[in-house]
Amino acid sequence: MTEPLLVRAARREPVERTPVWFMRQAGRSLPEYRAIRERHSFFEVAGSPELCAEVTLQPVRRHDVDAAVLFADIMSPVLGMGIDVELVEGVGPVVAQPIGSAADVARLRVSEPDPAIVEAIRLVRGELDAGKALVGFCGGPFTVAGYLVEGKPSRDFARTKALMYQEPDTWHALLDVLAEQFAGYVAAQVAAGADVIQVFDSWVGALTPADYDEFVAPYSARILDAVDAPTIHFGTGVTEDLLRALARAGGDVIGLDWRIPLDSGWSVVGEGRGIQGNLDPAALLGPWERIEEAALDVLARAGGRPGHIFNLGHGVLPQTDPGLLTQLAGLVQEHTVEARV
C-alpha cells in the first residue's frame, strides 16, 4: 500500500505534489467544532475518543487537506503527572500549583498515555483515507516547562529562566521527567496509528541559542528519537542561530514560522532536511488575491524541492474564514501538480 503523501514528503522522496495541512486546523475556526464546544469543554472533547476523532476529522472533510492532526493540547500529557491544568479562554493553560522547587519536581510521576487519546487515534486512522496522514504531536519541553513554572503563558518567562539559572539541577530534573513522559506519549501515538509526530515548541524563541543547547536540546532530542516515524520539529520566534540549534536537536522536517523566508530558513537548516511552512496565518484575514500571492511566494521559495510540506507559520487564527482555508488547500494542491507536469 502506498504510504501517505505527507509521509513520503517528510522522507524527502519524490512526490506527485506538495502536501498541505494547517496547524490548529481542528478547532475554533470551524462552526461544526464550535457546535460541539457549546456542549462540551475542551478536555471533555479531548477525553472522549469519539468526540476527539470527530473533531480531528472535521477539517479533513471540509478542506480536503493531506493530513489530520490529533485534537489535543500540548498540556494533555501532563494531566496524568499529578498536575492540575485549566484551559482559560483568552489566556491559555493555567496551572493551579506552579512548579518552583526540587520538591515540586519530585512529586511528578511518569504515567501511561491516556487510553482515550490512543483510542481516538485508532478511530481516526480507521476512517482516514490511506493517502492522508495522521499527525500526532506533543509540546516542546521548554514550552511546557515554561507553563508549569510560570503557571500561565508569559512573554518573558522570567520565572522559568530564573529557575534554569539559579537551580539548574531542578531544571534538568524537570526536563528529564517531561522528556520521559512525552517520549512515551508520542511512541504510544505512533503505535496506535499516527504516521508523523510533530514537536511543537511554541515559546522556544524566548531562549538564546546557547541556553537552548544547554537547557533544552538533549530533552527535545530524546523525544524526537522515541519514535520510528517521520518527525517535524517546530519552534516559533527563532533567530537563524537558534534555528540551527533546533535543527541539531533533531527532526526529519524542520517547521518554520512566518518570520523567516522559507528559502532562507531552508539554507540555514540544510538541504538534507525537509521544511514545513510557512504562510503567515494573518494573511488569511486579508482578501483572496493577497492570500494567493503570499502562498505562491512560499511555493516559489520552496522551488519544488523534495521535502516541502505546505503549512502556516503558526496555527489557524480563530477568526479565519474556513472557506479561505479550503481555497488555499486547493490552490497548493492544484498549483504543485501543474508545476510537476
Explain this structure.
The structure is a single chain. The protein is of the alpha/beta class. The chain has one domain: Alpha-Beta Barrel (TIM Barrel), CATH 3.20.20.210. Helices cover 48% and strands 11% of the residues. The protein contains 15 helices and nine strands. The strands form two sheets. A seven-stranded parallel sheet has the order 1-4-5-6-7-8-9. α4 (49-63) runs parallel beside α6 (115-127), α7 packs across α8 (158-166) and α8 (158-166) crosses α9 (168-192). The longest helix is centred in the middle third of the chain and has 25 residues, at 168-192. The chain is globular, with a radius of gyration of 19 Å.
Short descriptors:
seven-stranded parallel beta sheet, 15 helices, 341 residues, globular
